Each structure stands twice: as structure tokens, then as C-alpha cells.
Amino acid sequence: MWSSILSFVSLLLVVQAATDNVKPWFCHKLDCPKFTVLQNTTDYQLRHYIPSKWVATNMTVTTYSHGQLFQKLFQYISGNNVPGQKVEMTAPVVTTVIPDTDGTTMYIMHFMIPYAVQANTPVPNDSDVYLVDVPAMDVYVKSFGGFARDNTYVTKLQELKTSLDTSATNLYDSSQFFTLGYDSPFAFINRHNEVWLQAVKA
Ligand SMILES: *[C@@H]1O[C@H](CO)[C@@H](O)[C@H](O)[C@H]1NC(C)=O
Ligand SMILES: *[C@@H]1O[C@H](CO)[C@@H](O)[C@H](O)[C@H]1NC(C)=O
Ligand SMILES: *[C@@H]1O[C@H](CO)[C@@H](O)[C@H](O)[C@H]1NC(C)=O
Predict the structure, then answer these.
(1) Which InterPro entries match (predicted)?
(2) Which ligand is nearest to the CA of 98?
């Protein structure tokens, strides 16, 4: 009996590893965070992400322009770090959006650290740029193509909330959301974007 339990567990581990290692098409050639799909519907997915390492920077503003945050992270990967080392671009660019009651919003932009340098990650020179270890998390995901504008993300977020709100068991953290872009502005086809809400346990 124990041996059949063990072989069942190792089968599960194999399945888990296999799913984790399948890179979705929308990452193209870039390293991207690893996940398994827990629930798939025509409107959204529930994904489980394993822990990952990121470089981040933030700003708290009333009027957002993503260029300034992007530039700081781009400088970091271009060599503005202690060893002066270039770091490969990864996907996606993840921005956490946290509205405050005073009318300001905090935006935290993140680039994932490539797997090859996660164990020995260059330290940022810019004091506004920092490394973050993101724990495992479950997120509700709404995907869409094309060029995403700020108002596209807001529309998709609303659609995602509407889909989730049809079931009382789809619990999420409504104090923040995440916008994700997987492509450079110079990619004109097969673009992929997502909006996320973090799932919370009942
Ligand atoms: C999820 O569902 C969509 C729509 O039904 C389908 O196109 C897609 O292939 C499914 N993805 C997975 C990972 O099962
Ligand atoms: C980053 O800091 C290191 C050591 O503190 C320094 O040698 C290097 O010149 C700095 N790089 C840039 C691009 O400022
Ligand atoms: C925002 O950035 C500052 C450094 O500029 C950092 O100390 C702080 O922890 C960041 N806040 C969040 C929520 O990431």
C-alpha cells in the first residue's frame, strides 16, 4: 500500500514538474515566472505561481506615467548595478496598482530576475530600485491581446471582477490589482496582456 501511495505521490510530482516547466507561448523566448493552472474558464484562469525573484521600483502619484518606472528598471538591466552587469530582459512587466483613500495611487513596477542570475543577483545602484522575493501566490487572470492602454486594463479588470462576483467562492483581494504586459512596444503581432487579482482563501 505504501509503495502505491509513494508512486502516486511521485506521479503527482512528475505531473507538477511537467506543468511548471511548460512555458506558455506568450513568453516567446524570454524567461517568465512558472505557474500551474488550477481553474480554467472562458472568462478567466486561476493560476498558482511558485516563488520568484524580481527587481522593482515604485511611485505614489495622482497622475501615472509608466515611463519613469520603466526607465529605472531598464537602467538596472542595462548595467546600473554593483557589478555593472547586463541582465537579460524577462517577461512580463508586472505593475501592482494600490489605490489609496487620499486619491493617490502607488504603482510598483517589477521585472523578473532571469533564472541564470537568481542565485547571484546584481545589486541595484539606484536607491529607488530594489530586489523582491515574491512568495508563492494564487491569482485570477484575465488575458487579452493587442496594445493595452491604462483604460484597457481598467475595462478588463472590471470584466474580471464581474466574472468572479458571479460565485461567492471566488474570493480576491480588492485593495489592489496587477497589470501585465508581455511584449515590447515594437512587437506588432501575437501580443499578450493580463490583469490579475490575488486570490485569497476563505
Ligand atoms: C482554457 O480555456 C480556454 C477557453 O475555453 C481554452 O481556449 C484554453 O485552451 C484553455 N487553457 C488551458 C490551459 O486549458
Ligand atoms: C554602480 O555602483 C558600483 C559600485 O558601487 C560602481 O562601481 C559602478 O560604477 C556603478 N555603476 C553605475 C552605472 O553607476
Ligand atoms: C517603494 O520604494 C521605496 C524606495 O524608493 C522602498 O523603500 C519601499 O519599500 C517601496 N514600497 C513598496 C510598497 O514596495
Answers:
(1) Reg_factor_effector_dom_sf, SOUL_heme-bd
(2) 3
